[in-house]
Amino acid sequence: AALAAFGGLGWLAFGPDRVDRDALARTTINQTLPTVECSWLKVVNVESGEDGTMIQMTGVAGSPGNAQSKISQALTAAGLPAAAINFTDVALIRPAGCSALETYGKIRQTGPQQLSVTRREFEREAQADGPPLALAALSVKPPDGKNFSLLGIEPNGNIDIILADRAAFDEAVAADLVEKSPQGEYTVPFNMDHVGWSGLILLTGDAAFEPAIVEPAVDARGQDWQGNFVATASERDWKAEMLWIRSVDKV
Fold this sequence. Notes:
Layout: H1 2-5, H2 9-14, H3 18-32, E1 39-49, E2 52-61, H4 64-77, E3 82-92, H5 98-105, E4 115-116, E5 121-127, E6 130-140, E7 147-153, E8 159-163, H6 166-174, E9 179-180, E10 186-192, E11 196-205, H7 211-214, H8 223-236, E12 239-248
Parallel strand pairs: 2-3, 5-12
Antiparallel strand pairs: 1-2, 4-6, 5-6, 6-10, 7-8, 7-11, 9-10, 11-12
Helix pairs in contact: 3-4
């Protein structure tokens, strides 16, 4: 009787197919994200409820409001209206950084992720011989049989190389600067000297990652660079994944 009274909607929200609804919501969002200009967003959590679908996102966007609107419209079109889309952990990236996001986004890794962090906020700490730093760490699972490079990107668009390639990584491991875990992952420490967001890019593939291609100056990222990057990435089977963490000064 209750099911009939709700016309099946109560069963859809709370019954056996709730997992299917959550999976559909994730799929819908992931299919929508490539259409969101100047962004690199990732779904953190999806939970269907009586009032709609609760979404939590992370990453960066040039216009978080536009990104939220596109996600909301896509969910509504799929019959999964969003009760709330949480963008608390989404950073605002400046227009100068859009070119890098959109270009790297063309080779975005869609399979298992090899870059992770245990938390997204790192507290700044006073240093005896310099300004305060946020001492961060991330886990990297090196790809089998592939070269890779680890880069950092700031909200202003600047890109810096942290580990240029597998050879540099092996040297860091040999020098005990990078620690291996029993699960086969490696902990890479690094410092953030500013308050705010920082992005990490793991670029995997064949052959070398020339600085002029993977980390050009902001004013050198025109159409010629974008075309050269995509062509090189295709030739060398490059894939990229990215995550964003935040340096805070709460204490």
